[in-house]
Write a structure and sequence with these properties.
- It is built from six helices and four strands.
- The protein is α+β, with helices and mostly antiparallel strands and about 220 residues long.
- The longest helix is centred in the first third of the chain and has 29 residues.
- The relative contact order is 0.14.
Length: about 220
């Protein structure tokens, strides 16, 4: 029985070449074998399990980018500029949610299981948990390609010029000022919102809704 090859678009083993390759400038073009019982190789299976979570994290990171634009930071479409165009950020956040929800619904319907709560982080984690199941279906290549492309494009908007500091506004718990430290996902330190008045007042990118609720409650109390 001939082993199945990975169906992820562009799958190739570095340094390995297919028949007919002249190897001139080719870094590798031999498609990897799919893992047993699956349609993806181990590398793309791992990425399929990671990318839904990364996409959900980037959804939160991009919310901080929008806050930066709301604080009046200069926006530009020039590569490497500090803040990307707001409409592009809004569009990619909507796309992240749409793509994750679509895959979650497919998984839920075809597997006959319940769906996660209506939070992007929970939806991303749900899709990731079922990566191996997806990798065995006819959708394996499409899922791997779509999620990888989504993460790549969102990353470019979230981190156009590396780590950034964004002033968010007054702290809801004291008289300090909040500043968001927006870091790339592969950084050893997380993106977080810090208060200059009390070091205990800090929120990471998964707690932005909690922070927003605290800010709104303080505004209502002050009204």
């Amino acid at each position: 029985m001939t082993p199945l090859l990975c169906v992820a678009p562009g799958c190739a083993i570095p340094g390995r070449h297919g028949d007919g390759c002249d190897q001139d400038g080719c870094r590798g073009c031999l498609t990897a074998r799919a893992a047993d019982g699956l349609r993806l190789c181990p590398v793309h299976l791992r990425r399929l399990g990671e990318n839904p979570v990364k996409a959900a994290e980037l959804h939160g990171e991009l919310e901080l980018v929008l806050k930066a634009a709301g604080q009046g930071e200069r926006t530009s479409s020039k590569p490497g500029s500090g803040t990307p165009p707001r409409d592009e950020v809004v569009a990619i956040r909507a796309e992240i949610r749409h793509v994750l929800v679509s895959w979650a619904k497919l998984i839920g319907e075809e597997r006959g299981i319940g769906l996660p709560t209506d939070e992007v982080s929970a939806i991303g984690a749900y899709v990731a948990r079922h990566a191996e199941w997806l990798a065995a279906t006819e959708y394996a290549g499409e899922a791997a390609d779509e999620l990888a492309s989504l993460v790549s494009r969102a990353w470019g908007l979230a981190y156009p010029s590396g780590t950034r500091r964004v002033e968010v506004g007054p702290c809801p718990r004291c008289d300090g000022t909040l500043t968001a430290i927006v870091r790339p996902i592969d950084s050893t330190k997380p993106t977080e919102v810090l208060c200059d008045g009390d070091e205990q007042h800090r929120w990471d990118s998964t707690q932005l809704r909690t922070l927003d609720r605290l800010v709104m409650a303080r505004k209502r109390a002050a009204a």
